[in-house]
Design a protein that fits this description.
Layout: H1 5-27, H2 32-45, E1 59-61, E2 66-73, E3 87-91, E4 94-98, E5 103-107, E6 113-119, H3 125-130, E7 149-157, E8 160-171, E9 176-185, E10 197-198, E11 204-208, E12 213-214, E13 228-234, E14 238-243, E15 268-273, E16 279-283, E17 288-294, E18 300-305, E19 311-316, E20 355-357, E21 363-368, E22 380-384, E23 389-396, E24 399-407, E25 412-417, E26 423-427, E27 431-438, H4 442-454, H5 458-471, H6 506-509, H7 517-525, H8 527-530, H9 544-559
Parallel strand pairs: 6-10
Antiparallel strand pairs: 1-2, 2-27, 3-4, 4-5, 5-6, 7-8, 8-9, 9-11, 9-12, 13-14, 14-15, 15-16, 17-18, 18-19, 19-20, 21-22, 22-23, 23-24, 25-26, 26-27
The chain binds heme C (HEC).
């Protein structure tokens, strides 16, 4: 086995960081600085491997419903990790997407993804990137991340309707940055985004977070992925906005963590009046606060990235303080105590999260399900980047009682429910995934589960699906049902012609042996050659790959019992 040298070096330094122990980290003596740097490297290299992107499945079976998929690509041309982010919302029949490129795209389905004539407000990224060549910033790092668009939200207030956009805005004059909320008003009668044309200057700034943050000398100058910036609207005119700490946490920055500073609008959930621009801090002690949602019963929940371990779901209440960076279920990336924290792996002094993911999953979006399927309605649905899954969280009296993980195998940036009830995912591969609920049909579900777990490629998966449907015209895949033909639920490894089906031909009845990969392949290729006189007609199976997948599926079914 070949271990890449870089990996070995990283693992070695990780071990060193562990041995150095948390006293050094805690007291911030040398080599605290060095350890933190190692930590940063670890977080970006070891913990965020670049994984190949599998195909999106045609359906995702879950505990209660089957999710049918319609997916399509938004043609932004964006590939790089640091150019991701963005948000989605609904207007009229369309899903609107605001990705990194600052264009607004619209889609009512995968077959209809188009760019609109709406341009987002400027975040001054060109001026920001130019700083990399500015001698005043020679010892700053501009590599990591840059200002991003963080969310897009359609609003309808007492006075009108339109879009809200939140983004990290660089201020070229003051050389600092803010989380900015801007609005674009639509003509009162507009019902489709196709009727609207707007350039960047058409947006009005509603609020810029205070203070304007200076570029950091430690690590990256501006860490756009730590912005938060997700929105939840409450009529008539309040928008709630998460505002991340941009790694102003006392580790990747000097000074105390900004999330505990009552004057600073970072590491907070804010309430902003979109008519007056007035803002107030609702809750504090957040880290990289991501998805935010108001439930129909008026609760406000947010999800946020903890450091290693300790992604949180928080019930946001006025005055709540969730403790960051003084307390967290997470650790540094080298598994030591977070420098300056009050405890290790505990959450005793501040408001605890309503739920936490340990280890971290890279939590991202959050929505509440309503009118999707009776079995899911009222549940929260959170999405994740690193774990590439959805989590359906059942609430009882506002408290989570369980979380079902649904693996999608895509880095999901945002999850949203469209006005027509479909759930929509926005992925870091710039795909939109529309999900509708279907009843769990047993056979479809069995095939989907098998396809999902065996990681079959898309074309083979769909050929398998259709050939199994062909078998299902005669055979049942439910144990015990032998009405029209022998049931195929448990034949693998069993004796040939040994189910309770009473119509076996003499030919098959007298065949000795068991069903193995070999005998099944032989039989399926040519039933009459295998057992002359069999009443099983020859089936069209397109190619050996599909036949092998079919045999594996039959094997899988038998093992599943
Ligand atoms: C038109 C109806 C029909 C279709 C379609 C059909 N089969 Fe069959 N199959 C039968 C019958 C009838 C038998 C019993 C044959 C006999 O007794 O000679 C049988 C027997 C079998 C057996 C042997 C079962 C045992 O108990 O030993 C297997 C395995 C099998 N079929 C697999 C398949 C697969 C896989 C497909 C789809 C590719 C398929 N069949 C499609 C009618 C069908």
């Amino acid at each position: 086995m070949r271990i890449p040298i870089a990996m070995a070096v990283l693992l070695g330094t990780a071990a060193a960081a562990l041995f150095a122990g948390f006293e050094i980290e805690h007291r911030r003596v040398f080599p605290h600085e060095l350890l933190s740097k190692i930590d940063m490297r670890l977080s970006s290299t070891v913990l965020a491997p670049i994984l190949p992107t599998p195909e999106i499945a045609a359906r995702y079976p879950t505990q209660l419903v089957s999710l049918a998929v319609d997916s399509g690509h938004v043609p932004t041309g964006i590939r790089k990790q640091e150019m991701r982010g963005g948000g989605i919302t609904s207007f009229g029949r369309d899903i609107l997407v605001l990705p990194f490129d600052g264009k607004v795209y619209a889609a009512s389905s995968s077959a209809d993804i188009r760019v609109t004539r709406i341009q987002a407000p400027s975040n001054h990224i060109a001026e920001f990137l130019a700083l990399a060549d500015d001698p005043r910033f020679a010892d700053y790092s501009f590599e990591a991340e840059v200002p991003r668009y963080n969310d897009l939200k359609y609003f309808r207030s007492a006075r009108g309707h339109g879009l809200l956009a939140s983004y990290t805005e660089y201020d070229p004059e003051r050389l600092c940055y803010t989380n900015t909320l801007a609005r674009l008003d639509f003509p009162a009668e507009a019902t489709s985004v196709d009727e609207i044309e707007a350039d960047a200057a058409r947006w009005r700034i509603v609020h810029r977070t205070r203070p304007c943050l200076a570029l950091k000398k430690k690590y990256a100058a501006l860490e756009g992925s730590m912005a938060g910036g997700r929105l939840a609207f409450e009529a008539p005119s309040t928008v709630y906005m998460t505002s991340g700490d941009f790694h102003y946490d006392g580790m990747r920055s000097d000074g105390p963590g900004i999330s505990q500073d009552p004057q600073a609008e970072y590491g907070k959930v804010l309430a902003i009046d979109i008519e007056t621009g007035e803002s107030r801090i609702v809750s504090s002690g957040h880290r990289n606060a991501q998805g935010l949602v108001r439930t129909p019963d008026g609760r406000l929940f947010n999800v946020e990235h903890g450091p290693r371990g300790g992604d949180e779901l928080n019930l946001v209440r006025p005055g709540a303080n969730f403790g960051w960076p003084l307390e967290s279920y997470g650790t540094t990336y080298s598994n030591t105590r977070i420098p300056g924290s009050l405890s290790f792996g505990r959450h005793d002094h501040f408001d605890p999260p309503a739920f936490a993911w340990v280890p971290s999953v890279g939590i991202s979006g959050l929505t509440v399900v309503s009118g999707f399927h009776p079995a899911w309605d009222g549940d929260l649905l959170a999405s994740s980047l690193k774990d590439r899954s959805l989590y359906r969280i059942r609430l009882a009296d506002g408290r989570p009682v369980y979380s079902e993980r649904i693996e999608i195998r895509r880095q999901i940036r945002a999850v949203h429910q469209h006005v027509d009830g479909r759930l929509v995912l926005w992925t870091d591969d710039q795909d939109l995934i529309f999900l509708t609920a279907q009843a769990l049909s047993n056979l479809d579900d069995k095939i989907a589960k098998y396809v999902h777990s065996s990681r079959l490629s898309g074309p083979v998966a769909s050929r398998l699906e259709s050939v199994v449907q062909q078998c299902a015209q005669c055979h049942s895949f439910e144990p015990g049902d032998n009405a029209k033909a022998p049931n195929l639920a448990r034949i693998f490894g069993h004796r040939i012609a040994s189910t309770s089906y009473d119509g076996y031909s003499n030919s098959l009845k007298h065949k000795s042996g068991r069903w193995t990969r070999e005998t099944l392949s032989e039989f399926l290729d040519d039933p009459k050659a295998f057992a002359p006189g069999t009443s099983m007609p020859k089936q069209t199976i397109r190619d050996p790959e599909t036949r092998d997948a079919l045999v594996s599926f039959l094997q899988h079914l038998s093992m599943a019992f």
